[in-house]
Amino acid sequence: MRHLWVRGARWSGEAPSQGLLVPPIDAHRRRCGPYTAAGVLLHALVPGALERRPDLVAAHDIEIRTAAPDLCDRVPARRQSISAGLPRSQRILVPGPRRTLRIANGLAEFLRDHLRDQAGSAGSDGPRALVVEQVDQADHTDRELLTVLLRRLDPALLTLVICAADPDPDLAAALERHAALVEDAGPDGDAGLVGDAGLVGDYVELDGSCDVPAVREPYERMTSEERARRHRERADALAATGLVAPRLGAIPYHREQAGDPRATIDAFGYAVERCLVEGFHHAVVELGERALRIIEREADPDAWWRILHSTASALGATEREDAARALFDLARREIVDAKDRATAAYATAMLLVRHHDPARRDADEALAWINEAVALTSLLPDRRVRAFHLGFDLNGKALVVSRRGRLTEAYRLVEEAIELAERDLDPGEHPIHRLVLRANRAQLTAMLGRPDEALPDLTAAIEADPRYPDYYIDRGNLLCRLGRHDDAVADYETAMRVSPPFPEPYYNRAEIRFAAGDHEGALADLDYALELDPGFTVAYVNRAGLLAGAGEYGRARDDAERGLALEPGNAHLLCVLGQVATAESRHAEARKALDAAVDRDSGLASAWAARGVLAFETGDLEGAVADLTRAVELGEDAEDAAQLFTALFNRAVALRALGRQEQARADLLQALELAPDDEDVRRALDAGS
Questions:
Q1: pTM
Q2: Which burial class, exposed, middle or buried, applies to 8 when counting CB atoms under 10 A from its CB (0-12, 13-18, 19+)?
């Protein structure tokens, strides 16, 4: 059984074998912007779920409140960062571009569990279908959600019927893998919209979301004055409802068409800011670019700058750094305010130092821009304003200089920013800024080789904002480095609870489980991490290695190849590929992969060790000793006991085969120090005595 892909805008109306979960949903983003389709679905399901499973709704409060903001009065915020209660000027952490994937996975799990509950209840009607139309016109958030649902929902539980003539690449790949293609939307194409609900003729009431000729043509025949009046009335009616969702889609559209400059600026200003705060970066770009074509800077310079800054930030977040840079260059040509120019300089530095393409990162040019920002904010006359903005820029400069290897200077810059905040900000002012600085100081302290000294800062950041998940990951990693594995797992599991699902805590817990010998638990965590994000390359590395160690070579090879498709040339994955080929006696293929691995990363001990094993198996004993010696040296430098033990033992085997008994014995004795209870080493020592 498979999901269905209708290659067209709308469903033909022929009922699938399952009953419909809800009436067909129009996903056109012009209606409610981000999560237009998800919002309709949640409004249909959440009231019933609140009656039957309030615990399930509570477990997904963040996801539901994000995708359906007009349910916030019915779904209390159980997990909420302190930033939600701060003024906008103090909410400095803009969600990253992957937040919407977390939301999508949480919504998928809510829907799955809700449907399972229904399927198990008395009087259940059996499997259902969900029809989503006009997916080509959906916002990125809805298309991402549908991609996740196609991958994670069993069609026997809910069959998705996705109507899309030209889906984006990610959605198209999911449709091709998980859905059966239906070429036509029906004999009348888009006629399915027109008829059943009597929707013919009112293009404005449909928020411009229907281009069926019978709907569009009457609108085209109106005078421009009549069209403007109708749009204005529709915008006013939607605004009078007090609903949030139309303010992210339909209201900006209607204000734009009505031609009232003040109302248009206000509508776009609200939508852009709300979408940026939620991490809806693709929507910010679209809304912002539309707004910048309308708003004249001279008419409202503050609104123009706010929208430009938000749009450029969202462009950077969606890996369109050149377009973001162009907007900041435009701002520099237009504005003279010192604080705003400093903000543009800071943002330009961050584009340069964080570019998604590592080859295009330029820490030197970034340093020039961040120095300009620091120079400008140092001159701001107001003590409190200067303390915040200068501290922000010093923190940014710390990132730039750390990328240039100047960790001590970076630490000093963050210390200076902390001192500014403590001295010149009012008590309790800018709490997010303060905890960001402390968390960054912790990272630098650890990088400078003092991990134990870093813990108090991370603990302070967590105590200041206990429902922000990322600092639990940072502290867990630090605790793991200090050998406090149980405490690290506790932090990872807290991150799991306070956030919608994301792969990092499961990936990190898998490493601890593997080290403790719980290979089954580690594999389960890695499986789930990759279910959440099939693009999480490092999880393929670890799962492939775990599978190879368990002798599941076919699955290990599949993981290595999937990972290499995402990151060609990944040395760790090439190493696994070589190990698998060695185990399967495909020696030429193994040699090619392992040579590529050491060429790509000459410091990767596991690749040298694997190539040493291959050399031994193909009769090149001297080559085996040479490669294993390099693996031993790297293992000693990295203080990796397990890796060093294996390399020493294997080198001892190769040395013994060459007749170099004393050297072999020395390796075995060193290996025994690392693993005193290892029976293989003891037997090898006994055999050589």
A1: 0.93
A2: buried
